[in-house]
Fold this protein.
Amino acid sequence: MKAPPLVLDLFANMYLAGTIIFGGGPVVIPLLRSYVVDPGWVSSRDFLLGLAIIQAFPGPNFNFAVYLSALALQRSQFPTVLGAFLGFVGIFLPGITLAVAVQSFWRVLRTKKWVVDLLRGVNATAVGLVFTAVYRLWEIGYLRPEDSRGQSLAREPWWVVVAAVTYAESAWFKVPPALAIVGGAVLGLCWYGAVGR
Amino acid sequence: MYALSLGVQRIDNTLPLPVYALLSGLNASTVGIIALAAVQLAEKAIRDKLTRILVLLGACAGLCYNALWYFPLLMFLGGLTSAIWDGWLSQRIGKVRAMLKRKKQDPGSTADEAGTASSVQLRDIAGTNDNVHQRVAAAGSLKSSQLTPASQQPFAGSLALGNEQTATGDTPDHTIRIKIGIVISVLFFGIYVPSASYILTC
């Protein structure tokens, strides 16, 4: 009787994540990390791999939930397609439902000053949480054979260089994120070629 | 993304060495991209001192603890703070400050007194005029309290008028849709009651 709660848990977590995403995009990352990696459903390595690839590809970050949910069911007796489906429904349903429901009285709501103030505060706090995602990913980004859970990127200065270069080229040199991330991977291989062996 | 997950499931626990370097490089650049996204989002979200403080506090509080219920709670508290501060507290403090200022100056000059009062009011209005929605709301409250300064009156009046027109223009079909909307949102949040009790019992 261990399995049914896992499916239910997974859906509940995705649903909750789908509800509290304000500002979309990167806000979803810290939430999904704490909702899927912390319970031990998905390994830190697989989370990071999926994250890097979803950042490199176009399309909404929410698709990440599909990937994570499929992986979460890989050691259960359920097919992983079920996980993918649950993740998809769980992360998108709240947003769509709320959009349909709220648009009926949004015209009334938005004239209420306290509603606008409330949403502004919620949004600001959610943006603060994105910064925590930066820190947490930083702390587990350096993967080595001895420790597949990941170590801090700061243990090897080269990764700091890669992160800084990626930030700079994307912020000021109009390099698209996908290319910047692929560039990071290439720099990683260069590092291996030079000193990693 | 599902196809990718199928591929990742087949990956062994131990990988060839160059793959670790490749993945670490991917992670490092992902951190860079997300850091940039965080900065850009923050620039959009920060409009005054309060939202700046909320971004900072959200980040600090999120760093120190981690749980399923924690992030939603933080976001709710942030929203509550800004609603209370912008809706009530800042005006209160403004009034008290103006009163203290008046007491400090000599109490006889009525002209000066009127000057401070209106300037405080103007500042309040300027503070609320962040965007159009708020301006409409402000116009509504000004209309009811009848305290509009002469220079702002025509502008506020026309806005309020326009607002009323749109409101009366589509009331009939709105009342029905509002009911449906309320039913949907009640159902939506209703799901949380059993799941919350489930989480609490675990």
